Here is the input.
Amino acid sequence: MVKKKFILNIVFRTDASIEIGTGHVMRCLTLADALRCKGASISFICRKQPGDLSAYIESRGYKVSLLPFINQVSFKIDKNVKHSAWLGVDWERDANETKEIIKKFACVDGLIVDHYALDKKWEEKLKAYTRNIVVIDDLADRQHVCNIILDQNYYKNINQRYKKLVPKDCVSLLGPRYGLLRPEFLYERKNLRKKANVVETLLVFFGGSDPTKETYKVARILADIEPKLLRIEIVVGQSNTQKSIIQDLCRKYSNMNFHYHVNYMSRLMREADLAICAGGSTTWERYCLGLPSILIAVADNQIEVCEAVNSLGIDWYIGKSEEVYKKDIITALQYAKEEFDLINRSKKALKIVDGHGANRAANEILKYSIGLN
Here is the structure.
């Protein structure tokens, strides 16, 4: 008699929207792919709202259970959770709606939560319906009741950030060693070209939604000041509300190329010499391919990461979006072109991220879920 193979059921609770952006869903998809490759059964729970990525998640082969969109509803804001409004409803309603979906599963071995609006109160209500809870976070601004905490970012105090926020027996997966990178970044890393200390190709990308409209701002500045010899690659995400006018601008300049909702970001990063971008999860994608950047924070939660990586001598952080003007970008770009040791900065980045982080995180989650920790 052939013994039936045990399949772990993993459920992700995460959201994307115009306000939230796409980063949470995208990093969850990367982890989901790694878990699926190891035999886990994966599904998602997301709230329906403008800018959600439910159709895209389904196109990647995952089942999505949609929580209802509540239009123009007034709900109680949780004053103890800074981003509670991003949930679209109060946390208790979200917990109850999520619980009703999870109860339909015969067994949930792991609930992976990636949402700035959720904390220990929500997790307490769900923990009876799953064997384990994994929290993906990078704010360290609220308490959690979880078995594993995953934060892929670099901070000077990384080992202290969550000590008072998670249970004492919580497994901590912290730092770029656990960077959630898609396999294509590892592939492109094997095909890196030898770079020179000259900026010939510039990559511009500010996330899937670009809430502060940095892409258009930077593209207009570059159009005014840059010689035609410099190739400029402008990448725009699916939820960017300015995609049409950015595309129209790019059409006017032969050296400015428009890319929309790409699945070849790793190739663009490998081919670029320098980037101008936000301080989100693309930091670790760039580091895997040795690409330094001029950084602009587009959200409060990016500031600490930007300041921390600035000290590594790879990127140059020039400020938060509303504090960065044309003169700042011109000065930074000129300095980068004339003074950056691009080769040395690239080597430093390559040492920090090796591209195996998603696989490491998946192994730890599965090991814990089957009781091998």
Remarks:
- The chain is about 35% helix and 15% strand.
- The first helix runs from residue 23 to 37.
- Residues 294 and 336 are 8 Å apart (CA to CA).
- The domain at 9-181+355-369 is CATH 3.40.50.11190 (Rossmann fold).
